[in-house]
Amino acid sequence: MSTLKIAPSILAADYANFASELARIEETDAEYVHIDIMDGQFVPNISFGADVVASMRKHSKLVFDCHLMVVDPERYVEAFAQAGADIMTIHTESTRHIHGALQKIKAAGMKAGVVINPGTPITVLEPLLDLVDQVLIMTVNPGFGGQAFIPECLEKVATLAKWRDEKGLAFDIEVDGGVDNKTIRACYEAGANVFVAGSYLFKASDLVSQVQTLRTALHD
């Protein structure tokens, strides 16, 4: 089984205090910082650009897991590589050139990830699996934090895990949306090993303890 990783989502943090919020994450045993990039076109919301990621990079040594919810993400590969992104995950629905975009990400020195929305058939992923380091399954519709978990998406996670084993591949399976101490175990049992959590973590004053509740739930 792949290493289990927790990825606090900075989208749920206090935007006026990114440096201190990153310091709070550094105090936990989380492996990633999940950064949602939204352009107001692919999804209705607008968040951060590469300049903000570059500023955050000065305050954290954790893995920056950048999820781009933007139209034609291949336009931004170099900018996010230079900003310090470690993983760049893009939507199959956002570009007509998904293979080329993934290859461009890897050529820029980042790990490449691919993601699908809850309503997208998982079959679109199968031709891409030998190109990627990570597959993200959205367990809410993307664009806003704090949404309710969609349990039907776990069938996609289980299918992905089956394909990974059958093909002898080693990509991570990440879940994002509504992940908390009540839903994380089902995600793990379906085959996920990277868990993005936003609202659940940042609503707590003690982030260290809140991350530990996820670890505990994984093993209960």
TrEMBL record:
Substrate binds at residues 9, 67, 143-146, 176-178, 198-199. GO terms for biological process: pentose catabolic process; pentose-phosphate shunt. Coiled coil: none annotated. It holds the Pfam family Ribul_P_3_epim. One of its GO terms (cellular component) is cytoplasm. The active site is at residues 36, 176. A divalent metal cation binds at residues 34, 36, 67, 176. Its EC number is 5.1.3.1. Catalyzes the reversible epimerization of D-ribulose 5-phosphate to D-xylulose 5-phosphate. Belongs to the ribulose-phosphate 3-epimerase family. This is Ribulose-phosphate 3-epimerase.
